[in-house]
Amino acid sequence: MAGTPLVTVAIPNWNGRRHLERCLPAVQALRGVAFETIVVDNGSTDGSLELLRERFPWVRLIANPRNLGFAPALNQAIRASTTRYIAALNNDAIPYPDWLCRLVEVAEQDSHIGSCASRMVFDSHPHLIQSAGIAMNCAGIAWDRHVGEPDRTAPDAPPEEVFGASGGAALYRRAMLDEIGLFDERFGSYLEDVDLAWRARLAGWRCLYVPAAVVRHAHSATGGEGSPFKNYYLGRNKLWCIAKNYPWPQVLWYLPVIVLYDLGSLPYTVVVRRDPSPLVGRLAALRGLGPVLAERRRVQRLRRISWRDFCSYLEALEPPHTLFRRYRVTRTIAAGRDPARAL
Prior knowledge:
The protein is of the alpha/beta class and 343 residues long. It folds into 2 domains: 7-217, Spore Coat Polysaccharide Biosynthesis Protein SpsA, Chain A, CATH 3.90.550; 228-342, no CATH class. 41% of the residues lie in helices and 19% in strands. It is built from 14 helices and 12 strands. It has helices at 17-28, 48-55, 70-79, 99-107, 174-180, 192-202, 228-245, 250-253, 255-264, 266-272, 277-287, 289-301, 307-311, 320-334; strands at 7-13, 35-42, 60-64, 85-89, 93-95, 113-122, 129-131, 134-136, 142-144, 160-161, 169-173, 206-217.
């Protein structure tokens, strides 16, 4: 849309040519708000650069010589832009034409709204929710709200307060990022959006889920749902999220619950699926804990809300079998199979 950009749409890419061929035409068709688009390519070798230069010359391109990860790529786009808002968008996400303007309309209503979450539906099963924002519980477990549930959203459904926004399709206020910092580049990929949401909540920023802002998403099309690559980073980054953000002394009160739920998830992956990557990731987290704890001091100094207020954004603890069921449903849908088989 013509005019001075209000939003920068930031799209990290790594060997995602086939996704960009669907994503960028949908971005170009966005209406209702002035925006610019930056694609940060992480050393792709699949012809992504050629595609961008030949078919999408309106895109600002930042080309890295190697894969730096999702979080560093997003930060590059943020630093290269000056707009009031940053819209993070996965290269495997297809936004509806009014996606961006719906997010901006809500964010403009209150300067304390630091981020907005989209209604993300599975690309292979668009009648099912993939994410309605980030949910979090006191065990430090984060997941996509309503994942795998039928999308029965009413056309006039109002925005809802949520813990945070999934970075696959989210709007962030630059003023918030200036205060709490950008995505933590140590995380590389996965849970960098959870870490950012945690920091934002501690600092008193709001996050609203906007049901009217819709994208179709090919969940984990790049990293692969359930892959050793993804399991490693999830295992490592989850512990870093807790170590960095969980308030004191509450982290001590809930430590037994945190440990119990965390260790309870390992036997399935390590023994049943014979994948040691989650354990390797947790060991890597412990080895790299020093810099994370140093960063923790800065994060906690930004804290503006009480523990009681923070708890109002947390979900109730669920039995472990519920968590496993949600994970099975996500894996089944991401693989393009009938989700009823995972129930």
